[in-house]
Structures are given as C-alpha cells and as structure tokens.
Write a structure and sequence with these properties.
8-stranded parallel β-barrel, Chitobiase, domain 2, 7-stranded mixed β-sheet, alpha/beta, disordered N terminus, 14 helices, binds ligand TNX, TIM Barrel, 2 domains
C-alpha cells in the first residue's frame, strides 16, 4: 500500500447533485474541483461523507454477483495485490452484487463505503469498473492505518468507446507488452484496443494460406524498429486476456494503401507496371496500393484476410484502414470492403477519407485531421471516433522538440494539457474517443510507455468523465496522486517537470 499523497489528506465532494439521507455529506453543495478524490477517470457523482472506514486485516466477501466473471477475477487480483485475505469472522464486509438499476446502464456502477463496502452494477462490466475504482482508493492508503473514505460513488461513462490505437506494424510490440498494456488500460477504464496490424513496413498477423505475409512482411520493420508477428494462437490468447479485462481488441488491416509489406510478400497484389516490389523500412506514407484494376486478384485476397480476421477477433467492428491513398477506384474499393465486412457479420470502421464511399450509415468513421470536413458524413448519419491529431496523436512530443517525435500535426507537440483540452462535446454523433500511437519513431517498450503515459489518462477521462467534472488543474493533481499506481505497473511514463508544483 502506498503512503497517502501530501495534498490529499482531506477530500470532499464533487459534482454531486443528490443529497443522501444516511448521514450528512461533508460538503455536497458546491463542486470543489481541487478537492476531488484521487481517481482517474473521475466518476460522475461523488458524495464524500465525514469519517473513514477503518480496514481490518481481513475481508469478508458476500458475493451475489455470480455470472460476473471478469469482476470477480478483478476483485481477486486486487485482494492479492494489496495482500488482503478473505475470512468471515471479524473482517471488513464487502458485498458485490448485480442489481437492476436502469440509471446505471451497461457499464455504470455504485460503490458505497460506510460500515461496509458495497459494490453494485447491472452488469459484469459495471462491477468490473466498480472494482477498478475500489482498487484506486485502496492504492491511496496510509499503510500504517489503512482506511477508506466514507463515500458514495455513482458512476457511468460518457462514451462506450474509450480507445487507444497501437501501431504494431511499423515497429512490433511483443505479446507481453500488449498484455501489460491491456491491464493498464483497464485500470483506467479504457476498453477498446485498436491494433494497427498492417502497413508498408510490416504485416503482423498470421493468415493461413498466405504464409509469406508473415515470413516476408512479418520480417520487416521501420529502420531501427522491431519486426515480428502474432500467430493466430497468440491472437486468441490476447483476445481472451483482453476479454477478462473488459477490453475489446479492434483489428485494423490497412487497405488499399499502406500495403507494401503485403505487396513484397505477394507481388501479384501490385499492378503489373509497379517495379517497387520489395520490403520497405523508411517512413514515407502514401506510395503503395493494392491493384484496384485487378479486382480478380485484389478482392479474393481482401476477403480471405478479412474472413480470418473476423474468425480471430470477436469485435463487432473491424477496421479496414482507408487512409492516405489516391486512386480513382478508391471509393469503390471502400464501398466493397465495408460490404465484405458486413457479409461477414460485422461492421466496418474506416479512417475519415473512407467517407467518400457509398457506405451503409452504420459504418464508423475515424476522424484524424482536425480540420477534415466530416459534416457530409454526419449528415448521412455516420457516427465518428474522435482522434483529431493535434490532441490525440501520441507519437507527437510530450513537449515541443522532444527527440524522436513527430510534429507534422502540431509543431508544439501534444503536451498533456493539450491532450486534455479536446472537448468531445463539441462534436456530434460521437461514438467515442481514441488516442493513437504510431510507431515510425517508437521502437522500444520504454519509448512506448513514454509516449503513452500519462497522456492516456487524458484519453480515459475525456471518454469517461462528464464535462462539468473536468478541469485541467484538478486533473493534474489527481495525475500526481495516482503516479504510484503507474509506478506499481512498472510504466516508464514521461515525468512532467512541473507536475509536483502545479
Ligand atoms: C498519419 S493518421 C498516418 C499514419 C502515420 C502518422 C504519423 C493516419 C490514418 N495515417 O500512417 O503513421 O500519420 O503521425
């Protein structure tokens, strides 16, 4: 257990509208953003009551949450982590139960701490998130006198899509890194891990019947980066690992551009006049494409690949890429690819450029250029995933001029404050928020950590927390207070020079 942080000794109420008649809230009249509990993402309603619940050495769990496998697994992990043993004599009581409360929706929960600890939700996911909040409170203990604040938290996310994209194509990330990343995401209630599995520099997923995709395409990478690929067995293992943590793996096969690795593996995928048929390790974009004037070659390939992707990944949404390519047949290709996904029983996602095609309106579009005119697509009825690069591109610097970072989208980089400033509420038809880490310049686990953290905490909060509970200064205090949680997860995060003093 961690020593409580200096400024967090007294913590009061935030964002609460309702009064509670069990006891008197210490302060529930005015929102006091600088006295928020040390939680990220911040919950919707927090009623802090006077006093604390002193924790006994053991805990007695009353479980009416059968059928909530991920929540119970998570609770067991928390108990192990904090060295809490179960016993039913003079222990602290914890009740975890499924309930039927429409206001909590599919992922919301209630966590109340008074004489006992009560966790309730309508679903396994809701209870899983109650456990995450409980765990963050536990992490903020005084180890000499373990106690939890008397509090009632009623929480619910703003968006169901709380995502992060990892580019494993330019530079590969090993399975073990992805597992830790899933754990880290889940701790902060992020629930969509978008894997950019293919690009010019590498092909990272085994496709049966196309062995060269991984023999050739899996063997290459951006210069200085890592090569490699995931076997189908490893993907299945990762999917299961993620499911147990309420994270959906969303696969992306980038088509029809960004395909040099595929072309180098199977030359026939390029048009006959193309002479550049070898693997690529540079950082240019927009130079390769599947041959759209050879539909008899292109579409069977696309169909074979997507059929296996759908077999491997249970995600409702399958990303077909669609970025950065010029070809007169592009709109037709995107229309056909999104329909192939639909025939396979799923729904496609495309990068914003895919909006030029005649897609069904359930196709999601991922906005990445801040200024892209997405309005026509919104008018048609599409929903969007928000990844505007000047806020969410974490391959950009934590500060201006950070070595090995891009700045094409914003010359000042994307500091934490900037990442926090995205206001999803300014957009309409928003499915969710997703930050992206491209890996042309990110070649090791440590560098990935540095680019992702603590900025992913901003993504988590933008996607989960209501606007009226968001305030950068208050957020920064909470980031500061949860740094021990990042340390505990062995995250090599970027240390903000001014964090302690803000
Ligand atoms: C744009 S965003 C890309 C990627 C690059 C990234 C580098 C998008 C859909 N395409 O191919 O890796 O910029 O910041």
């Amino acid at each position: 257990m961690k020593i409580i942080f200096f400024f967090l000794v007294t913590m009061f109420v935030v964002g609460c509208e309702k009064t509670n008649n069990e006891s008197h809230p210490a302060n529930n009249s005015s929102a006091s953003l600088d006295k928020q509990l040390p939680l990220i993402p911040y919950p919707r309603t927090v009623n802090r009551f006077e006093g604390d619940l002193e924790l006994k050495a053991t805990i007695d769990i009353n479980n009416s949450a059968q059928g909530s496998p991920t929540a119970l697994l998570a609770l067991n992990r928390v108990l192990t982590k904090f060295n809490i043993t179960q016993d039913n004599t003079s222990a602290t009581k914890l009740n975890i139960q499924l309930t039927d409360d429409p206001s909590l929706g599919l992922e919301g929960y209630r966590l109340s701490i008074a004489q006992s600890i009560e966790l309730s939700a309508n679903t396994d996911a809701g209870l899983f998130y109650a456990v995450q909040t409980f765990s963050q409170l536990l992490a903020n203990q005084d180890e000499h006198k373990p106690s939890l604040p008397n509090v009632e938290i009623i929480d619910n996310p703003t968006f169901g899509w709380r995502g992060n994209m990892l580019d494993v194509a330019r530079s590969f990330l090993p399975v073990e890194y992805l597992k830790s990343h899933i754990d880290r995401m889940a701790t902060f209630k992020l629930n969509r891990l978008h894997l950019h599995l293919t690009d010019d520099q590498g092909w990272r997923v085994e496709i049966k019947g196309y062995p060269k995709l991984t023999e050739v395409g899996g063997g290459s990478s951006v210069e200085g980066g890592r090569s490699g690929y995931y076997t189908q067995e490893q993907i299945r293992e990762l999917v299961k690992y993620a499911q147990e943590r309420q994270v959906v793996l969303v696969p992306e096969v980038d088509l029809p551009g960004h395909t040099q690795a595929a072309i180098a593996s199977y030359n026939k995928l390029a048009c006959d006049d193309v002479t550049n048929l070898t693997t690529y390790s540079g950082v240019k974009v927009g130079f390769s494409k599947l041959c759209l004037t050879k539909p008899e070659t292109t579409y069977p390939f696309v169909k074979d690949v997507l059929s296996q992707i759908v077999e491997l990944f249970p995600s409702k949404y399958i990303h077909i890429g669609g970025d950065e390519i010029k070809d007169p047949l592009y709109p037709e290709f995107i229309g056909r690819a999104t329909r192939i996904v639909e025939e396979l029983g799923r729904t496609a996602i495309a990068w914003e450029e895919g909006s030029v095609a005649d897609n069904k309106t359930d196709v999601l579009l991922q906005l990445w250029n801040d200024k892209y005119d997405i309005q026509p697509a919104l008018d048609k009825g599409h929903q969007i995933i928000l990844s505007p690069c000047s806020y969410t591109y974490f391959d950009h610097g934590n500060y201006q001029g950070q070595p090995n970072t891009y700045d094409w989208c914003r010359k000042e980089g994307v500091p934490l404050e900037r990442a926090y400033q995205l206001n999803p509420q300014q957009f309409s038809q928003v499915k969710g928020v997703e930050s992206a880490m491209w890996s042309e310049l990110v070649h090791t686990d440590e560098t990935a950590d540095n680019r992702l953290w603590p900025r992913l905490l901003a993504t988590s909060e933008l996607a989960w927390t209501i606007e009226s509970n968001r305030d950068y200064k208050a957020f920064l205090l909470r980031v500061n207070s949860i740094l021990p949680i990042l340390d505990d997860m062995n995250i090599h995060y970027y240390s903000l020079p001014k964090l302690a003093g803000e």
